[in-house]
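Subject: Interface between my chains keeps coming out wrong

I've been trying for a while to get a sensible model of this assembly. When I model each chain on its own everything looks fine, but I need the whole thing in one frame so I can look at the contacts. Pasting all components below, labels as-is. Any help appreciated, I'm running out of ideas.
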Amino acid sequence: MESMLKNKKTILSFILPGLIIYILIVIIPILNTIYHSAFKWNILGSKNFIGFDNFVNMFTRDKIFIKSMKNTFLLMISSLVIQTPLAILLAVALSGNIKFKRYYKTVFFMPNIIASVAIGLLWSFIYNPEFGIINRLLEAVGLNSLKRLWLADMKTVMPSIIVVICWQFIGYHMILYLAAIENIPKDLREAALIDGVNSVKMLWYITLPLIRHMIGIDVVLMATGSLRFFDLIYVMTNGGPNHASEVIASYMYYKSFRDYQYGYGSAVSVVLLVLCLVIAYILQRLFRSEKLEY
Amino acid sequence: MKKIALLLLCVCFFAASVLTGCTPTPTAEGTGGTEAATGKELTTLKIEAWGIETDPNSVIIKEAVQLYNQRNDNVELTIEFTEQEQYKTKIATLMAANEAPDLFNTWAAGFLKPFVTSGKVYSISEDLDKDPEWKNRFVPGIFAGFTYDGKIYASPNTQTVVCLFYNKEIFDKYNLEVPETYEELKTVVKTLNDNGITPFALGNKAPWVGAMYSELVANRIGGSEPFDKVYNKTGTWLDPSFIKAGEIMYELAQMNAFPEGFNALDNDPSREMFLEGKAAMHVMGSWAIQQLTYEGSPLIGKLDVAKFPAIEGGKGDINNWLGQPDQSFAISARCKDKEAAVKFLKLMADPEIQLKFAEAGNLIATNAQLDPAKANPIATKVAELQKDMNELFIFYDVALGAAVGNEYNNAIQAITAGTDPVEAFTTLQEYTEQNYE
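Reply #2:
Try treating it as a single job with all components included. I did that and got this:
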């Protein structure tokens, strides 16, 4: 077995089927998209080569693109700032000896196994200004002045969506941290307890440094995930009202399949690809850590 | 081993080169034509249509398809319905993938234009000229929206005009007259509001609904010329009539002429408000006649219809109607059997089917005469009002096509939510310059 795996040909024959599929459905479409981004093309007619004009227009003249870029970054930063600490705190809480541990784990993870479309509809009902629970509740306690149109108001639409996104994904990140925390050997914690640390210090000096690698992985996952976020926005607002909740991915869809400007849509997706790569690289550098050995 | 690996690599590269080179090129396919020629084989033609299968008009179209299938042994039509917004995406995708259905539902002007210019649609001009009896059934001028470079590409079955529907009972109760001018409209709005009734049932979540109001207002102020100029690229959105129309939309919103949260309200629930008598007026296309006068509708006997009011000092005639030819079908260039497809268009334009459309409350596109007893009274009234029609101007988003049309609708929605009209139209103008072709 050992010698067989050293044979390069054997290795090749094992990875080749997967590699071919990967090349066909990932690499080639990406190259194809980059190629199309240099054209003005409405899918139906002939393609006109325009070089980098799509990109120049995007950054210099297209206000909606700039808006969608701002929203994408807003989404990413708020996800990082809100979800990471909350997920870690939840994971720490659930790693202790508390009652109904499994029950809470399931409850927090639940939004993750529901389809995004269902979540979008669910929250559309919650936010509905007529019969939605939020406005009804505000009405019931006499806070009529706080009632908003939520998803239909250009000012409240992004915060409203961010709340839903946090609600949906926090459980997922919590599970990742929980796994990392449970991997920390018990004797380390016990030793610390004998030395008399309180729970805040335990978190700060023992737990956090030891799950640093997981934070690094998770932050990259979260950042790239929010950069290419699409489904909830499509279901809840379709980028509206008046592009107020447009993100790069939804704008790409809008341009390609609503306006039929396929070349431009391709250019938008190329920008998205580059952004994801750059940000993932930066974050990975930031959280680079030595391999842990307990 | 080495050879196998090499072979696999070759396969991989071959597949890669095929795929990268595989961009759809428009080709006219003729599959199935030979089968039809033999007269024995069954040709199946596929129709794509928009709407929900249970919509009254969809039912009529389905009946027509069944009738066609009964009468023609060697052709079988199949039809599939898709919800309107999804349909637009679907048909564009099918067209791009060169998998267009044999016949498809289309809208006029800007919607069909890209398909026509890329050679995906079959022109029915010659067939119309060959059969004058068929051509002469249609009301004059109805083909204008389907004519590109002098050739006709689709045949409409109904017409749609935007009307001001109102609840007579509510108007009588508060001694109100149907407003004929904007000033009168404002008084009506005020009285209704004072009595706790929403003046207009407007659900503007999908912004095309509110855009119908502003298009009418803009036309009443400046006539059709400003928009024609935008359409021909000789004018801009900064024409005072557009901006004034935006201001009026904002003013109406501020006066609570629309329901609370109308920008978050869907069109369907807003119609419910009107049906239930919670709102007094409803500006909507004539397609709504069916939805307002179905059997058991709470509005029966109370519903009436009027022209959209004029604006004081405006150039636009009160007899200018906003609308379009509707329920139109086109034949795609790759259709297997064009003769059979044309036959279906003729069947649709036949009084046999046209009268069904009329009975269901549509304004029809042909001059088929309907028995007055069977006619929908509201549709008859609309037809009567339309007799003094000066001009039919087409929905902006239909005329300009998806890219710019959607942005106009968005701009109006933003204005009603408080964006400054000049700012909104400046942005729209920039967008139009970049995207309108």
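Reply #3:
Confirming on my end. The first strand of chain A starts at residue 39 and ends at 40.
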